[in-house]
Design a protein that fits this description.
By secondary structure, the protein is mainly alpha-helical. The protein has one domain. The chain contains 19 helices and no strands. The protein is globular, with a radius of gyration of 21 Å.
């Protein structure tokens, strides 16, 4: 039951010891790289060889069982499942593929973008429950991994690769079209620091004064019209189990803790990347995270909205550690007050994420506990 919590604490201890978030032990680059790859392999192994975890697991297992006799809505995952069934190959291959499509791009991007704080980023991936949540809605998370990879290669001007990584997430999860458009719009929107700060202050006020009930009614009216099929239940349900999922499973706890400090910090971080071609992708991520918190100020009470917001929320894995780099670059003294404040905030994030893991375990929102592997229970 405590497996994910052990992962979370272990990765953050690695960060505390090697990355100077609070203390720093001098360790060679080669050793920290090996240690990082070790953690990546452990996380990928446990994800790829899980059994029966998450509601989507049994949804796609049912598709696999009936692939030769029934018709299903087309997406790339269904096509792969039908191929596996026709070739009489095990269903576990789709779980391995989904784990690789999400985790390998995320781990690659963490290493490339946040090398100095790679363990801290990995800790956020686990601590904010994106890692375990990827066990549940693994088709969407596969699309998210490829989507972020697409934008990275797009801004690296590697056209042959980014064309492929743009098409694949759309084939896997058609909803990827919307974040692709919104990512592009958010990046093209340019404001100076004063305008961004004023926008932040306005939305902080909105966050503090808008009642949850008002936001929920707006979502029920809008999403009740556009959400159809199985998603209609996510749009309007307000029973006790729904509220448990929203709070524990759908990332509502974390943004409520971070919204005010992030809206105050992000305008400076965004503007710090101006006219720096090497940091253009970092600025794109910071803008996306800023846009996410602007939307979260409205406290939408809908699971389908919360699931969609994951496309934006997950970039916090990269953006939050960037604040450490920003303070390091702008602090002349090693005992700078700002630096120590950020370090203490880093420790605060660690404590919040560990606390979140504990309450998440108690709720068992997407049936992720206890962990079961295919080695302890075979798939017939």
């Amino acid at each position: 039951m405590y497996l994910y919590l052990i992962f979370n604490v272990g990765v953050f201890i690695s960060s505390l010891m090697t990355e100077g978030v609070f203390i720093k032990i001098k360790i060679s680059k080669r050793f920290t790289d090996i240690f990082y790859y070790m953690w990546c392999c452990v996380l990928l192994f446990f994800s790829a060889f899980r059994y029966g975890i998450g509601t989507d697991y049994y949804t796609y297992l049912n598709i696999y069982d009936n692939a030769l006799t029934e018709e299903f809505d087309f997406n790339l995952f269904v096509y792969i499942i039908k191929f596996l069934r026709q070739m009489n190959l095990p269903f576990q291959i789709i779980i391995i593929v989904a784990s690789c499509l999400f985790l390998i791009p995320m781990m690659y991007l963490i290493y490339k973008i946040n090398y100095q704080y790679k363990f801290f980023s990995l800790g956020i991936l686990i601590g904010f429950s994106y890692y375990v949540y990827s066990y549940n809605i693994f088709r969407q998370y596969s699309a998210i991994g490829l989507l972020l990879l697409f934008f990275y290669f797009y801004y690296q001007t590697n056209k042959k690769i980014w064309l492929v990584t743009m098409i694949l997430p759309i084939l896997i999860h058609p909803s990827s079209v919307v974040p692709i458009v919104l990512y592009w719009i958010v990046n093209k929107t340019k404001f100076g620091y004063k305008k961004l700060r004023n926008i932040s202050l306005l939305f902080i006020v909105l966050f503090m004064v808008i009642p949850q009930s008002v936001a929920t009614q707006i979502v029920k009216c809008v999403m009740g019209t556009f959400a159809t099929g199985i998603y209609s239940a996510y749009a309007t349900t307000q029973d006790a189990s729904f509220l448990v999922r929203i709070y524990y499973q759908s990332m509502e706890f974390i943004p409520k803790v971070l919204i005010i400090p992030c809206l105050l910090m992000l305008p400076k971080l965004i503007c710090s990347y101006e006219n720096d071609e090497e940091k253009i992708f970092n600025q794109v991520l910071a803008k996306i995270y800023f846009f996410y918190f602007l939307l979260m100020a409205f406290k939408f009470g809908s699971e389908i909205v919360s699931r969609f917001m994951t496309y934006f929320a997950i970039v916090g894995i990269f953006v939050i550690p960037q604040a450490f780099n920003y303070v390091d670059l702008n602090s002349r003294s090693s005992i700078s007050l700002k630096r120590w404040i950020v370090r203490l905030c880093g420790v605060g994030i660690i404590l919040v994420s560990v606390y979140y893991q504990i309450i998440w375990m108690n709720s068992n929102a997407c049936a992720a506990y206890p962990y079961v592997s295919i080695f302890s229970r075979s798939i017939d």
